[in-house]
Amino acid sequence: MAKSLMIIDDSATMRKIIMRTMRMSGLEFDQPQEAGNGKEALEKLSNGPVDIVLCDINMPEMNGMEFVKKAREMSSCADTKIIMVSTESAQDLIDSVIADGANGFINKPFTPEKFQEKLSPFMN
Ligand SMILES: [Mg+2]
Predict the structure, then answer these.
(1) How far is the CA of 61 from the centre of ligand 1 (A)?
(2) What domains, with CATH codes, occur in the chain?
(3) Percent of the chain with pLDDT over 90
């Protein structure tokens, strides 16, 4: 069965680029859900969890760091894999978001190969 996916990024253009890159990576997902910030994502997730979330860090209203903490408080999202996708590259920040419950980190700009490498462990 195809995995369900949510893409969270405040840039609609970036969400499209991520979607296109996902397709190029050969990974198969159902029609993905999209959200423009963490708050909108939590609202959508309260209607039903997804398997994999790709999440930006810098966003208005609720950023990716806050989103990870809140999502990890939701028992329905216990099995959801959250992969951060960001231009941030400071190791402290990456370590801290992983400690808060994120499952991986992909730097922008990214390639289909990078998506394949980082997401395939979660596709089974
Ligand atoms: Mg952003």
Answers:
(1) 11
(2) 5-109 (3.40.50.2300)
(3) 94
The answer, yes or no, to whether residue 2 has pLDDT greater than 90, is: no
CA 64–ligand 1 middle distance (angstroms):
9
Ligand 1 centroid to Cα of residue 56, in Å, is 6
Sheet holding 52-55, edge to edge: 33-35, 5-8, 52-55, 81-86, 104-107
Q: How far is the CA of 79 from the centre of ligand 1 (A)?
A: 25
The answer to whether residue 1 scores a pLDDT higher than 80 is no
What is the per-residue pLDDT for 85?
98
Q: What gap in Å lies between CA 108 and CA 119, rounded to an integer?
A: 15
41 CA distance to ligand 1 middle (Å): 14
Residues 19-75 have pLDDT tens digits of 999 999 999 898 899 999 999 999 999 999 999 999 999 999 999 999 999 999 999
C-alpha angle 116-119-124 in degrees, rounded to nearest 5: 110
Hey, what are 86's tokens? 């960001």
C-alpha 1 – ligand 1 centre gap (Å): 31
